[in-house]
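As a representative case, we now present a protein record of this kind.
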Amino acid sequence: MTAHSSAKARATRARILDAARRELGRDPDRGLGAVAEAAGVTRRTIYAHFAGRAALVEGLAADAGEAVRRASAVARDPTPNPVTSLAHLVLTLWSVGDRYRTLVALAHRDLGPDRVGALLGPTRDAVAGTLAHGQRQGVFHTALPPGPLGRALEAHVLALLDSVNSGLWTDDGTAAAAAVLIAMGVGPDLAATTVRRLRPSR
């Protein structure tokens, strides 16, 4: 395979994954025909890259998991302030929100809990660590342990992403990050100030 054909194959694969993310994000029951049409390719082309729907879903999950992993790694800044750390994490995850939402949606249909746990584990660990730090400092709610509180935060972010995707709301992550901080127990003024400090141009 030449460098040109290899680059073309990678571009086609990426286009198929983008189409699958859109189609399966809207309706997890969508078939390969719908994905092929959305990607502007034939079903045969999809089969050249993925053995079938299960392989496509696994490729989509791996792509989403890697994007979320990179985002959470970037957000692990050295700040000792858990409020700033959590806001930074939410803002960074928001930038890959379509992948994050699709990955969690696929968990309920196509992926087992162990696979989803492996893909989302680094992000969930980062969130739980930040929440535990904030609870020790008295800035986050302590009614729940960090693990369950982190899952509640995850559901909160997904609900906000769904609101944007369905057209109910428009946000670049700024309001979402402030809302998450408030939900975790941070005062509204501090939440708004923290997010503005991270996005001073907004």
